[in-house]
Please model this.
Amino acid sequence: MSRIRSKRATLLITSLLTLGLLLGSLAFATEKTVTIEVDGSVLETKVLLTSTVGEVLDQNQIVLGDQDLVEPSRETAITEDLQIKVTRALAVMVRADGTSREVRTTPVDVLRVLTLAGLDWDANDILKIVNGQSSKEVSLSSSVSSPLSVVGESVAARSELSSRGDAELNAPPSWGPNQIHKESVIHGDEIELIRVTQREFAVDEPIAYEVEKTVDATMEPGTTKILQQGKSGLARDIFLITCHNGQEVQRERMRTDILVQPQNQVIAMGESFSVSRGGQRFDFREARNMESTAYTYTGNRTATGVYPAVGMVAVDPRVIPLGSKMYIEGYGYATATDTGGAIKGNKIDLFMETYSQCMNWGRRNVKVYLLH
Model:
């Protein structure tokens, strides 16, 4: 009887060992290697085939935030050598229209961040991205559309970017065409959406008239006569005003419209050196308009050593040399024989016989013809 029991025990132990080996082989066959990339580290773990990505993360105490991204998704079943990547959300500060807002997102292009911030934009608006001491500033082209597609989809919008330098930061890097869709935001980025508006502004300016001169052989040299009065014109300059966030940054002249054409002033200039006065015609070398006064006998000789007489005049010898012959309108023929302390420049003093004649003459302007 004891021998029978011993055989049964041996058979039971053998069956249990066989079952254990089968279960161990099955477990080994279903255990798979999985790699997890998270927080800058790469973890390698063994999991069962029936596990999901979410279960693997939970088993390794990896907690996902609301905006964190895991690829593939948590519901994905585990396969051999599966690579799981966890991308943590980062904080980006977005400024626009006088307000600031923090956006938490996984690294996406900057235009996507604007969409997440609930902003739209125009073709001429400017994006400025600052991180520490570096700065990038670009102007959106007319081909940019808003909003963009969601994460995981291809970006439908296309942009042409015109590079701008930032003078305050010593000309930071610029972006070429479509670079904005390749540039992902990083932690600490500050994105400013600069609203660009343009308007036309008109400024009216007078147009000075020109002076047109013509010769008149019947007029004396040095004399002029206005034949046609000049009139100023009017021009309207059209400027394009560019504003950033309502502040003017550039004023460019676009065109000039002529509203009123200017009218030239036409002046006739004398050319004749011959005149007729008192029924006599004489030739002269120069005509002057001078300020005249009168004087009479003083008992003194003139500057040339002779006693004064009618037909003698006092002059400034620097203007009219002594001994010069002349004809003075209203007085007649005369000779420069005297000087005077008050006779300086374009002045002349005429000798007359009596004091009353001098008083009657007074002070008047006269035309003086210097004769050959």
Observations:
- The chain has four domains: 2-63+71-86, 91-194, 200-269, 273-371.
